[in-house]
Specification:
heme, 3-stranded antiparallel sheet, binds protoporphyrin IX containing FE, single chain, Cytochrome_P450_Monooxygen, globular, alpha+beta, 23 helices, Cyt_P450_E_grp-I, Cyt_P450_CS
Length: 565
């Protein structure tokens, strides 16, 4: 009897798991993709459990093998830096765009009708499904395990997405599930009223006026780093090779900690180092496949759970300390106060606990505020080191504006060349590689109905390096293209999106720009620099696009400017 019960329980469990896996990995994806396929959207055929992951791996491996063969046949020249890194990091996108996002779809119906008339073709051909569905543009679909993506580089579709204010468009659920330990139920991953509440609390803390008042704090932190560089370089004529990645990370961490977490900033360093390890562990492998589930006790997941627990309790300790100290009016205080009122707001319809609300949002700000800005600063300095003419131009501007003074908010606003350099850096090396959205209900863009549950992905680096939009020098560093602002830099303003698009655009972009200008202007005014011969250019994607090898600069003092702070 007991044996029978065990057997039927095991069998029942097995059948239930099979039915679950079959629904998640086959029935649901089929339902989504067949609706898109009927509308002319194509894509590579997925395998059952892994989707297109095997093909992604195969294409990446093939491109990397070809690349290393080409490299070994050439004499290595570290100064020959190729900015077309998306072709090697995301080669599958380029291949799929060529294969599945056919050129005919670029045409509007009018153009097709005209070309048909010109070619003497009968117009009834227009009802052929491959031609009539011209709305898609360069879009295709693919999947990683259970996660279905509609990937688009179609500027018109990007424009419609960025103008969309409908609550039917939101952030994908995999951000709070698969990326949960990092992003949790924070402003980054929530939707609807709870997101609206979080945005209302956090965004005003980074409005331009608030940021202006944080410039002196940014200058103080950067000055401390500059002094340490000066002592490493020694007196005039001295020189040092400095690994700037580490310094940019600790500087950025210092700035965001002090700006957002006030007197409790000292705990920040530990939290950042753990967050970085967490990000590293989480970037291994793909999300959405069986075995990567956050509930399965794999070695990776044990490490993630341990780090998550440690980070969460460290943040809660900071919160407790804050409760015991004097009142401060910083972001942490705003989050704490809003968490109290959030507890009373049943209308938000959320089941997130107050502790979770605090921890997830603090964690998200720590992560967003430090990693992206630090990496951008490293890329800016690397590019200025390899483009001495732009380094000299930016330095002349900084010295002219600041004279013998430390930069303030007005001076930063007038730094046109420095701004152009930062904008061009974020065009070539956007730290965030994808704008991600999800159809929370059926939603229509460019005559294509995107079914509920489908994720939408815009690969930022590919759009920002498209020669069709940016011209033949799309893969080159040319800050001049931003001389008349972002709107005039390319044939389509929507093609520039390092801070994302639409309602979910980066809440900290003014803060990030001010911080980058402070860092660059202070470094330029004190030092000249070139790339260390040890540098090897190798961008990598680990949730963010970062230098795969350390950026080491050969740094000297600027001799004509001897003022010390
Ligand atoms: C160079 C630096 C930075 C870059 C390139 C960057 C980029 C981005 C991108 C691409 C998004 C997603 C936008 C979208 O989905 O359309 C985002 C969101 C966000 N960023 Fe940034 N970011 C930077 C710095 C910062 C800083 C310094 C902060 C705050 C201290 C910050 C706070 C946020 C927040 C809160 C969101 C979520 C907005 C929402 O969903 O409502 N970011 N950022």
């Amino acid at each position: 009897m007991t044996m029978k019960l065990i057997v039927s329980l095991v069998l029942g469990g097995f059948l239930a798991s099979f039915a679950y896996i079959y629904t998640i990995f086959f029935v649901k994806p089929q339902r989504l993709t067949s609706r898109l396929r009927k509308q002319g959207i194509k894509g590579p055929s997925p395998s059952l459990l892994l989707g297109n992951i095997p093909e992604i791996r195969r294409i990446q491996l093939q491109v990397q093998t070809e690349l290393s063969a080409a490299k070994s046949s050439q004499k290595e020249n570290h100064l020959a830096i190729d900015h077309d890194w998306p072709s090697t990091i995301f080669p599958h996108f380029k291949q799929w765009i060529n294969e599945y996002a056919v050129t005919a779809r670029y045409y509007t119906k009018r153009l097709i009708i005209l070309s048909h008339c010109k070619a003497g073709l009968p117009l009834y051909n227009l009802f052929d499904s491959s031609i009539i569905l011209t709305g898609a543009g360069p879009s295709f679909m693919y999947s990683t395990g259970r996660i279905q993506q509609l990937c688009t580089t179609d500027i018109d579709m990007v424009k419609e997405i960025s103008l969309c204010t409908s609550s039917n468009l939101g952030k994908p659920s995999y951000l709070s599930k698969d990326r949960g330990p990092l992003l949790g139920q924070s402003i980054f991953s929530t939707n609807g009223p709870i997101w609206g509440h979080q945005r209302k609390i956090i965004a005003p803390e980074f409005y331009i006026d608030k940021v202006k008042s944080m410039v002196s704090l940014m200058v103080d932190c950067t000055t401390t780093m500059i002094r340490s560089w000066e002592s490493r370089i020694g007196s005039d004529g001295g020189m040092a090779d400095i690994n700037i990645d580490l310094d940019m990370r600790s500087l950025s961490a210092d700035i965001i900690s002090r700006a957002c977490f006030g007197s409790n900033y000292t705990k920040g360093e530990e939290i950042f180092s753990k967050l970085r390890t967490l990000q590293d562990v989480m970037s291994r492998g793909f999300i959405g496949i069986p075995g990567s589930s956050r509930y399965i006790p794999t070695k990776n997941n044990w490490e993630i759970w341990k780090l998550e627990k440690e980070i969460n309790s460290m943040i809660l300790r900071v919160v407790k300390q804050r409760a015991a100290t004097n009142y401060e009016k910083d972001l942490l205080q705003m989050i704490l106060e809003s968490a109290k009122s959030y507890g009373d707001q049943e209308s938000l319809g959320s089941d997130i606990s107050i502790d979770r609300f605090i921890v997830d949002n603090c964690k998200a700000i720590y992560f967003a505020g430090y990693e992206t800005t630090a990496i951008t600063a490293s890329w800016c300095l690397m590019l200025l080191a390899t483009h001495q003419e732009w380094q000299a131009r930016a330095r002349v501007e900084v010295l002219k504006i600041c004279k013998e003074n430390l930069p303030d908010a007005d001076m930063l606003r007038n730094m046109k060349t420095v701004t152009m350099v930062i904008q061009e850096t974020m065009r070539l090396y956007p730290p965030v590689a994808f704008v991600t959205r999800s159809a929370l209900q059926d939603i229509k863009f460019k005559e294509i109905t995107i079914p509920k549950g489908m994720n939408i992905q815009i690969p930022i680096p590919i759009v920002q390096q498209n020669p069709g939009t940016w011209g033949p020098d799309a893969h080159q560093f040319n800050p001049k293209r931003f001389a008349k602002g972002i709107l005039e830099a390319s044939s389509s303003p929507q093609a520039y999106m390092p801070f994302g698009v639409g309602a979910r655009t980066c809440a900290g972009q003014h803060f990030a720009m001010a911080e980058l200008k402070v860092i660059l202007s202070l470094i330029l005014s004190k030092f000249s620099f070139s790339l260390s011969p040890a540098y090897r250019h190798s961008p990598e994607f680990k949730l963010v696009v970062q230098p795969g090898n350390e950026v080491t600069l050969r740094i000297r003092r600027v001799s004509s400017h001897k003022k010390t702070y």
